[in-house]
Amino acid sequence: MKLTTLPKVVEPDPQQLIWKERLNTSFSLNEMHAFLEGSVEESIHTLCLMQEIERDPILQINPDYYELSRDEHREITAKKIKRLAQYMENDEPNFQNFQDRLNLIALIDPQLGTRIGVHLGLFLSAIRGNGTDEQFNYWAFQRGAVYMKDIYGCFSMTEISHGSNVAHLETLAEYKQEKDCFTITTPHIGATKWWIGGAAHSATHTVVFARLIVKGKDYGVKTFVVPIRDSNHDLYPGVSIGDIGEKMGRDGIDNGWIQFSGVEIPREYMLSKFTKVDKDGSVEEPPLEQLAYGALLGGRVTMVTDSWRTGERFITIALRYAVGRRQFTIKGEEIENQLINYPLHQKRLLPYLAWVYGMSIASNQIQKDYKIILQNLDDGVKSGDFGLLTKAIDGLKGLFADSASLKSTCTWITAELIDESRQSCGGHGYSAYAGFGKGYADHVVQCTWEGDNNILAQNSGRITIQKVMQFEKKGNVSGINYQFIKDAKRDEVILSNEDDLKNLETLNLSIKSIIYRISLKCISTLSSNGKNWDTIAKEKLSLSKLYTAEYIMDKWISKISDIKDTGVKKQLINLARLFAISNIDKFGVYFLQHSVISNACYEEMERYTYEVLKSVRDEVIGLTDSFKLSDFFINSVLGNHNGDIYHNYLGTVKNLNDITQTKAPYTSELLSMLNRDSVSSREKNQKSEEILAKLRI
Amino acid sequence: MKLTTLPKVVEPDPQQLIWKERLNTSFSLNEMHAFLEGSVEESIHTLCLMQEIERDPILQINPDYYELSRDEHREITAKKIKRLAQYMENDEPNFQNFQDRLNLIALIDPQLGTRIGVHLGLFLSAIRGNGTDEQFNYWAFQRGAVYMKDIYGCFSMTEISHGSNVAHLETLAEYKQEKDCFTITTPHIGATKWWIGGAAHSATHTVVFARLIVKGKDYGVKTFVVPIRDSNHDLYPGVSIGDIGEKMGRDGIDNGWIQFSGVEIPREYMLSKFTKVDKDGSVEEPPLEQLAYGALLGGRVTMVTDSWRTGERFITIALRYAVGRRQFTIKGEEIENQLINYPLHQKRLLPYLAWVYGMSIASNQIQKDYKIILQNLDDGVKSGDFGLLTKAIDGLKGLFADSASLKSTCTWITAELIDESRQSCGGHGYSAYAGFGKGYADHVVQCTWEGDNNILAQNSGRITIQKVMQFEKKGNVSGINYQFIKDAKRDEVILSNEDDLKNLETLNLSIKSIIYRISLKCISTLSSNGKNWDTIAKEKLSLSKLYTAEYIMDKWISKISDIKDTGVKKQLINLARLFAISNIDKFGVYFLQHSVISNACYEEMERYTYEVLKSVRDEVIGLTDSFKLSDFFINSVLGNHNGDIYHNYLGTVKNLNDITQTKAPYTSELLSMLNRDSVSSREKNQKSEEILAKLRI
Asked: Would the pLDDT of A499 be above 70?
C-alpha cells in the first residue's frame, strides 16, 4: 500500500532498481529454470505442483507463520497432515509425485515436511527395507499406512544416551519362547527413546530399534513394529510417552520420548527380511547385513534437495534486498550506492549463489542415482541373483559415500548461507518476517539429524583416503565417482596464471589434485602413527567438503557442454568459475602448502575473483528470478518479487500488530513504576535524620 | 530425580565422569576467577551480585523461559524492569554497581538487559553526550530518568531505509521561528524510525536523530528530546507508533516504528552541548563535531563484556556435555569413549575456550580505558582547556578504533561459539532447554546493531592501514595500541620451528608482523588502483580480526608475567598458545603467502596443535568451573554443575510437559484422518464402473 510523501523529498526507490535490473536480464529464465530442475518437463512439473500448493486453502503460509506458538504450530500442522493424506490418495500410484510435492512443502513449512517424512521416509522405509514383502504389504497397503490411514508411524531409533552409535542402542527385545513373543524393554534411563518425531501425540505404531536377545544371546540391534496407541489414540499399557517439548525450531513436530516396560509384541512383528527368529528360538542371521541400515539414506538424499531449495529461497531474499537497498555514497557520487555494488557485499553473497546452482546439480544427480540403486536392490533381492545383488550393494556403498559428503557439505553451506544472508540485510534481517530467523532455526537441525555432519564427513574423508590407498597399491580404483583419482596429477603446479583460473577443466583438475595430495599426506601420516585415524580428523573433514566440490564441478562441466542457449551458458560458466575459485580460496592453505597453485597465481586469483563477482553481480536479479519462487514460497517482507521492500515491510507489520492498541497489557506495571513515590516516602522516612535521631542512644 | 534401573545393565555415568575430572583439577578456581574478573575484589563483587540476582523473586529465570510467547516475554520483562528500578535507587550514587548488575542480568536475560540498556546507555547517554549540563540535569535527575522514574526513554536513530549511514537520516527538525519551536517530521516512508527499542509500548520520551533545518538550510543530523507519551501513557497527537512485531530473538523488547507528522517541541528540547540554535534562528556549529557521536561507543564496549560472559556460559555447557557424554568405542576399548577425548571434538571447541579467556582480558582492558577516556572528556569539556580536550579526543579516537575491532570480532566469535557448541551436543543441542537456540537468536543481533560488524571491521582495518602508512612515512605512529607496528619485523620468517610455536612472544610477534605485511600489501594496491579502498575490503576485514588477536595477546602476555600461582600460570600459558595458534591457522593463507611462517613449521604446527589441545583438554572441567556460573546462570539441561545430564534433562522435560495429557488438542484431526472411509465411499462411488456405465453414451 503506497503511502503519502511530502514534496521536495526523495523517497527510496527499491522497486525501480529491481525492475530496471530485471528488465536488463540477458538470458532466458525458462531455460535456466529447466537447467536447475533438470529438464523442461521437470520445470513444468515443479511449477504445476507449486501452483497447486499455493492455492490450497489448508496449506496456506503467511508472515503470521513466524508468530505462531508451539501449540498453534502443532494444531495447524495436524490439519495440514490431514489435508495431505487426501493428496496421497489422489497421487496414488504415482508416489514420486507425492514425494515431489512434499519436497516443495518442506521449503515453506519444514516441520510439516518432516512430520510426513518421518512416517513415509523412516517408518515405512524401515518396514520396506527390513521387512519381508508380506510384512510391508500388510502394514503399508492392507492397513493403509501408505495413505496415512489407520496407521501413523514413528521411528524409534535414537535414545537419550545414544544417537550416532546405533549399534550400541540399549533397548531390549527379548524373545519369550513360551508366549512366542518379544518383550520390548527400556532397562534404564539411558535407553529412553528420545527425539522421536510424531511420538508425543500422533503415532499409532513405531519401528523400534532394539537389541535382539534370544536365549540370553545378544544378536545386536534389529527392528520391530510396536503398536503404541489404539484406534482411539489411547496409549497401550507399558508404553510411557512424553513430549520432549520446545525446540530451537520445527515446533510443529511432536518429538517425544518413549519408555517400554515389558511390552509384548507377537514374534511376527519383528521385521524379518534379513534376520529371522523361529518359533523355537533359532535365529537365522542376515547374509548381507549392510542392507538392513538403508532407511536413513533416503533422508540424506532428500536433504541435498532441501538444501538446494532452501538456498534458493534465502539467497533470493538477500540479493533482492541488496539490489533495492542503498547505503552510503561512494566518492564522486551524489546518490547512495546499492549494497550489491560493494565488492565486499558481492564477496559475502555471490559465492553462495554459485553454491545454490551447484547444489541443484548435486541434487538432480543424487536423486537419479538413488532411484536406480533402490530399483537394483529390489531386483537383486527378489531375483536372488548374487551377482546382481553384489552390484546393487556396490551402488549402495557408493551412495553411502556420496550422500555422506553431499548431505553434510550442503546442509552446512545452506546454514552458512542463511546466516550470511540475514547479516547482509542488516537490522531488517533480524525481523521474524524477513524469514531468516525461523529459516535458520528450522534448517540447522539437518546438520545433526540422520547422520551428524561431522561424523558423516569423517566417513566420507576416510573413504576417499582408502580409495587413494587402493589406487596407489593397484593402479586402479573402484566406484564410479572416484575415477577422478586417476586424473589427479601429482606433482605439478596446476594453477599458475589467469588462463588457468578461467578454464573450468583446469580449476576442476586443481580440486581433484588437492584431494589426491591431501590423501597421500594422510596415508603417510597413518603409516607413521600406527593408523590412528583420529589425528587426521581435520583433513578428513576437508576432504569430505572438497569431494562435494569436485562432485559438483565434474557434473557441472559436462552439463554446460550440453547447453545450446548461449545466454544461459555464459551465466553458468561464470557461476561455475566462482564456485571453483571460492572453494580454492576456502582451502587456500592446502593449495599453497601442496603447491597446486603458485603463490603468484594465488595473488592473481584474489584480483580475478572481483572480476568474476562483478559479472555475476550484473545478472543477480535474473539469476534469482530463475528459481521461479513466487512470493508465497519466499514468504519474506524483504524479498518480494515487486521489490517494494519498505511498503511490504511496513504493511505486514501493521497488518499483524494492531496499531490501534497503543497500550500494552503490561502498561500498568510501567505506569506504577514511572509514577511511583520517592524512596523516602515509600519507606516512611525511616532513614531520615528525624527518625534516626529518635533511635539514637 | 534418580530413576529405577534393571539389574545386569550399565547405565550412563556422566556424573561420575565429570566429578572425577573436577576432583583432578590442578589449579585454584578462586585464583583463576580473580584473573578472569580482573582482580580478587572484582571476583568477590561479581559473585555477590550473582547471588543477589539468583535469589531475587522477580528476576527468576528457569527452563520455562525458553517456552514463553512474545506476549509473555513482554509482560515478565516489564515486571523485571520495575523491579530493577528499585535496585537503581538502591545503588545510587554508585551507578557502576548497577551497570555491573545489568551486565550479569544480560547474560541470562539479554532482552531485559537491552530494555534498560536502551534507556540508560542510549537515551540517557545521548542526553549526557549531546546535551548541556543543565539539560542532562533536568532530564536525568530533576525528572528522574536516571532511576527510571517519570521518564522512560528510547533512542530514535535508525530509520527503515537508513541504519549504518547515520549522516543520511531523513527525519526533519525544522526551526519555526515564529513559534520558537522545532517541527519534527517524517517526510516519507523511508524516514520512518524503525527498530526503536521501547517505542512500541513503553517509552514516554525519545531522543530523535533528525536533520536540523533552519531558514531552509540543512545543518545535518542533530539530536532532540521528543515527548511521545504522556503520564497516562497516551500517545501525543502527530505521533504514530506501532510494534514492529516478532523478531528472531529478544522478543521481550518492544521494538517499534515511529512516524512524526509535524510534532512541535520547544527549542530548548534540542540537545545543545555542541550545536546551538538561537531564538532568532542563528546557528552555532560545533567546534568538535566528532564528540557528538559518542553515544554508541558505550554499547560497543559493553558488547565485548557481553561476548565474553556469553561465551563462558555456552562453552561450559558444551564442555561439560563433552566430558559426560560417551559415544563410540575406540580400538582396543570396551567402554565407549568420552566425546572430549576425540581430537576433532577438541579442535572444534577448545579454541573457543581460549577465546573466552582472551575476551575476558579484552573486556577488562577496554572497560578500564572507556572509563578513563569518558572522565578525560568530561574534564576537558568542563575546563575548556584545548590541550586537555585534544588529548581526550585522541583517546576517544583510539577507543573508536579498538571498540570497532573488538566489538565486531568478539560478537562474531561468540556467535560461532554458540553454534559450534550446539552442534557439538548433537541432537540434544537442538532442544530449547539446552539454551543454545534462544542463546544464539538473542546473541546474533549484536553482530548487527550499534555498528554493523562488517562496517566496523572495515573502519578498523582502514585505520590499521593508515597507521602503517604513517609509520612508513614518518618512522613513528600515534595511538597507544598501534605502537606494536614498530616491533613488527618485516621480511624474516618468524615462525620456523617448534620452539617458536611454544614461545608466546614469538607467536605474538608473528601476528604483529602479519598485520604489518598485509597492510603494506594493501598500501601498494591502493597506490596502484587510485585509492579504491573497496577492492581491499577482504584484507581490511582480516586486519580487523587480527588486530583483536594482537590486542588480546599483548595484554595476555603481560598479565601472565604478573601471576604468582604456578598452577594458574601454566593453564593460562597453554590457553594463550592455543589462542595464538588457532588465529594463525585461521589466517593461514596470509601467513604462508607472506612467509611469516615457513611451510615446514606450518606442518609442524598442525601436529603441535593436538599436543596443546590435549593439555587444555585435561583441565576442561576446572577451566569452565573457574567461570563460577551457577546453574541459575547456566540455565541449560545439558550443562548443570552436578553432571547428571540425563536425569536433569528428562526431569525438566517431564516438569514442563505434563505427561498425563496423553492426547493433544488436535487428536480429533488425526483420528478423523486415520479412521476415514475409503476414497470411493467418500465420493459415493462416482468413479466406479457401475456409475460410469450409466454415464456412458
From this structure: yes
pLDDT for the residue numbered B224:
98
Task: Tell whether A38 is covered by a domain.
Answer: no
Using a pLDDT cut of 90, give the percent of chain B over it.
Answer: 91
- The 10s digit of each residue's pLDDT in A227-244 is 999 999 999 999 999 999
**Average pLDDT of chain A?**
95
| Residue B581 domain boundaries | 453-596
Of B325, B662, B679, the CB nearest to A89: B679
Query: Can you tell me the mean pLDDT for B145-151?
Result: 96
Instruction: Tell me whether residue A76 is in a domain.
Output: no
B6 contacts in A (CB within 8 Å)? 185, 187-188
Taking the C-alpha atoms of residue B586 and residue B453, their distance in angstroms, rounded to an integer, is 18
Interface of A with B in 452-511 (CB under 8 A): 452-454, 458
Q: Three-class SS of residue B219?
A: strand
Q: Which of B450, B539, B550, B604 is catalytic?
A: B450
- Chain A residues whose CB is inside 8 A of the B683 CB are none
Name the binding residues of B for FAD: 158, 197
Residues 6+ positions from A346 with CB-CB distance below 8 Å: A340, A610, A613, A614, A616, A617
Whether the Cβ atoms of residue A353 and residue A43 lie closer than 8 Å to each other? no
B528 in contact with chain A, both atoms CB, cutoff 8 A: no
Does the residue A118 lie in any domain? no
* A433 shares its domain with A496: yes
Residues A396 and A530 in one domain: yes
Burial class of residue A446 (count of CB atoms within 10 Å of its CB; 0-12, 13-18, 19+): buried
CB distance A245–B432 less than 8 Å? yes
Q: Is the pLDDT of residue B307 over 90?
A: yes
On whether residue A588 sits in a domain, the answer given is yes
- Predicted confidence (pLDDT) per residue in B539-554, tens digit: 999 999 999 999 999 9
A650 shares its domain with A695: no
Q: Please report the residues numbered 198 through 237 in chain B whose beta carbons come closer than 8 angstroms to any beta carbon of chain A.
A: 200-202, 204, 231-235
Indicate the number of domains in chain A: 3
Crossing angle (nearest 10°) for helices B436-443 and B295-324: 160
B215/B610 Cα distance (integer angstroms): 69
Q: Which positions 139-178 of A are in contact with B (Cβ < 8 Å)?
A: 148-152, 158, 160-165, 168, 170
Domain C-terminal end among B257, B288, B319 = B288
Chain B touched by A656 (CB under 8 Å): yes
By C-alpha distance, the chain A residue nearest B254 is A664
Q: In this structure, what are the phi and psi dihedrals at residue A635, rounded to the nearest 5 degrees?
A: 45, 55
Q: At residue A293, does pLDDT exceed 70? A: no
- pLDDT at residue A490 tops 80: no
* CATH number, position B211: 2.40.110.10
Q: Which H helix or E strand runs over B84?
A: helix B70-91
- What's the pLDDT score for residue B115? 97
Residues 6+ apart with CB under 8 A from A207: A122, A123, A126, A127, A153, A154, A155, A156, A223, A224, A225, A226, A271
pLDDT grade, residue A2 (50/70/90)? confident
Same domain, A650 and A672: no
Residue A288 pLDDT: 66
Task: From chain B, pick out residues whose CB is under 8 angstroms from the CB of A239.
Answer: none
**Active-site annotation holds for B492:** no
Contact B686, B675 (CB under 8 A): no
Residues A503 and A539 in one domain: yes
Q: What is the pLDDT of residues A187-196, one digit of tens each?
A: 999 999 999 9
Q: What is the pLDDT of residues A617-640, one digit of tens each?
A: 999 999 999 999 999 999 999 999
List CB contacts (< 8 A) between A240 and chain B: 659
Of A160, A187, A247, Cβ closest to residue B646: A160
Answer yes or no: do B248 and A537 touch at CB < 8 A. Answer: no
Domain boundary among A274, A290, A306: A290
Q: Find the DSSP H helices in A118-270.
A: 125-130, 133-136
Which residues 11-50 of B are in CB contact (within 8 Å) with A?
11-12
Chain A residues whose CB is inside 8 A of the B201 CB are 662-664, 666-667, 670
Q: Tell me: the pLDDT tens digits for B560-597? A: 999 999 999 999 999 999 999 999 999 999 999 999 99
